[in-house]
Amino acid sequence: MAGVLNFRPLTVSQSPVTLKRHSVRGWFPSRVSAKFQETPVPSTSVSASGGTEGVAAPSPILSPPPNFKPPEPKRFAVRPDKILDIFGAALALIFRLGTGVFVSGYSASFVSPAEIPPGEYVFELAGFKLKETSKLGPRPDNPIEIYEFESCPFCRKVREIVTVLDLDVLFYPCPKNGPNFRPKVAQMGGKKQFPYMVDPNTGVAMYESDDIIKYLVGKYGDGNIPLMLSLGLLTTLTEGFAMIGRLGKGGSYIPSKLPPKPLELWAYEASPFCKVVREVLVELELPHILRSCARGSPKRQILYQKAGHFQVPYLEDPNTGVKMFESAEIVDYLMATYALS
What we know:
- By secondary structure, the chain is an alpha+beta fold.
- It has a single domain (21-47, 66-104, 139-338), classed as Glutaredoxin (3-Layer(aba) Sandwich), CATH 3.40.30.10.
- Helices cover 26% and strands 17% of the residues.
- It has 8 helices and 14 strands.
- The chain has an 8-stranded mixed sheet, with helices on both faces. Strands 1-3-5-4 form a 4-stranded antiparallel sheet, with no helix packed on it.
- α1 (83-95) packs antiparallel against α5 (233-242), α1 (83-95) packs across α6 (272-283) and α2 crosses α5 (233-242).
- Mean pLDDT is 86; it is low at 1-45.
């Protein structure tokens, strides 16, 4: 072992937040206490387990584009027509000082090839092998549910803590003029405000990005909020600056087909390649489970074993059977499969 790198982000302790609990019939598990207020909501959403809840209309017939073939993964390659998109998305790394690159308790050590067992993922660059680990809090049994959209600095704050805590999240995109999930948030919580979080593991539902962050680090972390997410107005301003390079992408609805099952995206917030895919998922209002896998995430090993290679973004679409790497081609696939012409 040639050396060890330990990254421990500066943290600011926060006192526990007082939680307001809600229960929505048909959404939370039956173990949620009956004393919680119940508000029946006509569901038009996609369930995490697959299948559509409460939708009378038949599911659209979905299939890959004609002659579709998933591309071979190309490490750090950028398709020429996407150079400006990736550059614009990468500006966020500067404004946010890399928040969302590493998971909580990140640690890395250089190792020799002989120390790596067959089939184990390690980060390799220029002949160096870097083994990465992390220290994570309790894991939720079911994905956290978050209603949000890309071109919102408050939503980005919550997505960053999701990455730091290495949580899986079922995202319900709420772009402007979106017909499905924006109205649902107003029905559930009483107002169209984003982000809106629902934790089906505890029955807790809430607005306000700072309150959501406090809740998540208290329940699924060590109780400490990373410095770059604890600076109040400065945090919000830098989150806004981080989106300058994307000029509102991921904020407005593109008419689309609502899939019967949520898509799955392996990604993390700080990656510019993942960002351009997430923007299109939001614009098309496609529910998706985000398998967060920033540096140090144990899910990198899971994807490595699943796909024989680690690279993000990686999309799995249970509605068509498509599994693919490469951000530019994923965007093309999503538009061809789900956008209404």
